[in-house]
Amino acid sequence: MSGRRALGPVSGRPARRSALDATENPVQRHQMLRVGGRSVAWLPPLVLLVGITWVDFYTGKDFRIISWLVLVPGIAAAICGVWGTAAFAVLSTTTYAVADGFLPNEYQAGPGDLMLSAIGGVLATLACAVRVSGEQRMLHMRDVTDAIRRTVLRPLPPVWGGLDHAAVYLTADVEAVGGDFYDVQPGPHGTRVLVGDVQGKGIGAVETAAALLGTFREAAYHEEDLAVVAERLETRMVRHSGHIAALGRPDSDRFATAVLLNFPAGDRGTGTGIVESIVLGHDPPLIVGPSGVRQLPVTDGLPLGLGWLGGSTGPPPALRTPLAPDETVLVTTDGVTEARDGGGAFYPLVERLSEAVAADPGLTDPHRLVAYVRDGTLHHCGGLLADDTTMFAVRRAGPTGRPS
Predict the structure, then answer these.
(1) What CA–CA distance (Å, rounded) separates 264 from 225?
(2) What is the DSSP letter of 225?
(3) Which of 131, 171, 219, 251 stands 20 to 30 A from 33 (CA)?
(4) What is the pTM for the complete model shown?
(5) Helix 203-222 and helix 111-152: axis angle, to 10°?
């Protein structure tokens, strides 16, 4: 609250790249040259080797095969594993020696040429080892990142606390962790939803998100007033910043935008009622229904950690908004609204959603809705996200667990 393409599945839990299978070779998994699940990375260098040898047999003595054979282990180093590259290094040197002896009337190689071929193969193998080591480190870091995200963004049941929900989380940088967060917490006073975005990236942002989520899960369950939940979150943010400052870290001035929603317990299972909301410096949520798209009314709440700017007034009171059975609340982080196309134009979320819902009222289903916003955002920015992006859609489920 930085660009690479990122895409995740849509489900009732966060959309993230799955962790590496501990029994799977990460380098083999990383290879893109696969057919039917099997690696064919060996095919391009082999075709090149056969082609060079064929050309050598059907050209005159001016063709210097050594000038071309050194390319074979070099290409293998870029796409094959270490042992595959070593095999092509040996094979190319052997092919050079055999071809040289088979054509005694053509150009004859000397020890220097043979040594050049062998050295080229050794260097290609070393280069491949460096590449593979780097890939392994990168994949390990991705797994660490995934583990951190799974710890913060806990899996949620498909229908939880009487709510049908879906989420997509897209990372702008697969090697870094961001501060987007969300959760659903059922309780005696209703089912509460929190969606937020911590300023900045990295482990510090994740620490802040984890602190806020922990407080939300307790306060949302016990506190009757949604404004008190917001006040508890503000207090937690201030305490967390004080702890970071006491450690001497430079990131103690973080803040977080957030949206708090409450679906009252009396409406649970009825498919009708109201939604209570408090918006703290976040992009306003949208209510998406067959009749159109409208913005959820908001008050001027300050981001978490900046409440002191409002004096002693504290968080704003919750606003109550009627919500029809077929209407869905959509909350996105600024990665959606700030996605730009090649000309620098922002993604027109409301306009696109209004057109899509008018053409297909079934798009209000939370799973379809977040999938549409995901695809539209990625298409608009060409797959290059400037920031981590979260889309969270939620509505009441009917008595059978599905929307009524």
Answers:
(1) 11
(2) S
(3) 171
(4) 0.69
(5) 20
